[in-house]
Amino acid sequence: MCDTCGCNITDGNAHLVKPGGKLSLTASGNEAVSVLRSLLHENDHAAAHNRSHFDEHGVLAINLMSSPGAGKTALLEATIQALGDRYRFAVVEGDLETENDAERIRRHGIPAVQITTGSACHLDAHMVHDALHELNLDDIDVLFIENVGNLVCPASFDLGQHLNVTLLSVPEGDDKPAKYPVIFRVADLVLLTKADLLPVLDDFSPEKAEQNLRNLASEAPLYTVTVKSVLALESWLNWLKAEVKAQRARVAKGETSQPAIQPEGAALHESSPL
Amino acid sequence: MHELAICQALMDQVDQIVLEQHATGVAKIILQIGPLSGVEPHLLKQAFPLASAGTLAEHSLLEIKPQAIEVECSKCSQRTLAKPNRLVCGACGDWKTRLISGDEMLLESVELICEEEMNHV
Alpha-carbon distance A210 to A177, whole Å? Predict the structure, then answer.
């Protein structure tokens, strides 16, 4: 099916399987098949497929994750306003219900596809793949995938993105990275949003938030931003420009990239000697 | 509750293995789950009867091997155990560490029930 990722984990991890081959008999006489494959093998396969689509069309794909109401859509609106002349954006929106977020994005003249997940708490690679059919990737420089607002489940599913950005809004408290380590650990960039509220919510310490992030052994940059002024978004906008440039350089060389922190299944996949 | 979705993905994989190996059923499924995978073993266990109903693995045993979180320090090279929200080096306290284990979400192995054996029983 997918000729780019060559993902036959079982063969690739043959060295991990005990001597005597992958088949052996258990005490009860049953045949034991050693697998050592991610539980989300199918999803990871679809994610690799999405990523190769993005690379073929020179698209940079960014997965935005946060709790509901942390300001993901507002950040996208401000980003579109600031850099809309420079890059062609598109957005895939994930929510349980409503077309609201996609409509907000479309008002800026940007293509947006809304995925309504019903009761599912996260996006998966198949949902994103279906949404991609509604977009012309040749007309896109940067695709934002705004994940379902949730600090738990989205962290476990690769969508094919190149980068993960996790938002932490000031009203949520500076200990969120300690409370939800999985989603903050996989972030390539953490944005402290709604920083205009810092003078009011003076029990929030950006230093403590950063310390909690470093405790996860994360080297991801952490920027303090607010959509209330373009100046206060500069660090994010500069990061984005640098990442677009890096993606273009990779595409020119036929290379690709994944978020820095990969789950075990993907790590095995990468180290596959075959 | 993404554990149900993950469990359903597991059942698809297991069914595929049963068919590939020409087995008739599944006795046991063994998983490795680390705390940093974002998957809760007990929720996975709860989801399992629902997800396995009507599959070739219905009534099989689900064994989950919990994995410890271990990090390797990039400064002092020591390997130490860590907590999910504190992955700093247990020896020197430096925060620049590499995860050695603890984020596993793996199907380790499947014990199949084969036709011949069924005949013997």
Answer: 9
